């Protein structure tokens, strides 16, 4: 397994529990103990195979934040950067994507309050009295490793399903391209010889991020809207 991008951000959790418990969870996660994950009613639910008389445990993890109402805003951020979506499908974390998440303090990356959030909000059907049981840690590691392999899955931690997010990003790009083409036809500027892929790329690149941030930027965490440089790059 290649080095995890996300595990270091969760170090407060690993430091808060017994190292033997973390090792056991790591072994279970590597062995494929998590057999199902889904977003349900503002939580992440997972089914985790268990040893002993219980064949499996049901785990519920609290979200780090709730972005469900802001899926269109997040989709716009991604549409600004088709290279990030390409990196997602390639299973790679673009360094600028990581910098974007960190610099805008997006809650997909935990802060020091994450241990308290898990202790208060995590649930498991096992008999362990500690909310940070092996099954909870196993489910958490599984989610982290899946996001390592598919970067947009990091938005699960704030309640956004990967497929719905991608659909919204593609839909927003398609609407923008159609409106751009319509404007071009109205101005008599359509070039029928231009490659369709180039038209899409040019249309996305033409989006004026500064105007969007000034007039309609959405701030899902109550702190910052995402910052880009001119030409769809970050500040």
From TrEMBL:
Taxon lineage: Bacteria, Bacillati, Bacillota, Bacilli, Bacillales
Protein name, entry field: SWIM-type domain-containing protein
Keyword Repeat: no
Coiled-coil ranges from the UniProt annotation: none
Keyword Oxidoreductase on entry: no
Keywords carried by this UniProt record: Metal-binding, Zinc, Zinc-finger
Domain SWIM-type residues, every copy: 97-144
InterPro entries assigned: Znf_SWIM
GO MF annotation terms: zinc ion binding
Superkingdom of the source species: Bacteria
């Amino acid at each position: 397994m290649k080095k995890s991008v996300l595990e270091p951000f969760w170090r407060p959790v690993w430091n808060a529990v017994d190292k033997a418990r973390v090792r056991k969870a790591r072994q279970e996660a590597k062995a494929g103990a998590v057999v199902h994950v889904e977003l349900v009613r503002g939580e992440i639910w997972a089914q985790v195979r268990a040893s002993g008389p219980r064949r499996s445990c049901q785990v519920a993890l609290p979200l780090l934040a709730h972005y469900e109402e802001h899926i269109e805003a997040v989709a716009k951020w991604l549409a600004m950067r088709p290279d990030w979506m390409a990196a997602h499908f390639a299973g790679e974390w673009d360094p600028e994507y990581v910098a974007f998440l960190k610099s805008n303090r997006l809650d997909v990356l935990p802060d020091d309050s994450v241990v308290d959030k898990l202790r208060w909000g995590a649930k498991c059907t096992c008999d362990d009295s500690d909310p940070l049981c092996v099954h909870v840690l196993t489910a958490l590691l599984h989610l982290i490793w899946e996001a390592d392999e598919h970067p947009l899955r990091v938005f699960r931690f704030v309640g956004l399903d990967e497929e719905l997010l991608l659909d919204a990003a593609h839909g927003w790009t398609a609407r923008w391209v159609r409106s751009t083409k319509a404007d071009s036809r109205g101005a008599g500027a359509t070039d029928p010889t231009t490659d369709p892929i180039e038209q899409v790329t040019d249309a996305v690149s033409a989006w004026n991020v500064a105007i969007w941030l000034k007039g309609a930027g959405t701030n899902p965490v109550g702190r910052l809207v995402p910052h880009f440089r001119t030409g769809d790059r970050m500040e």
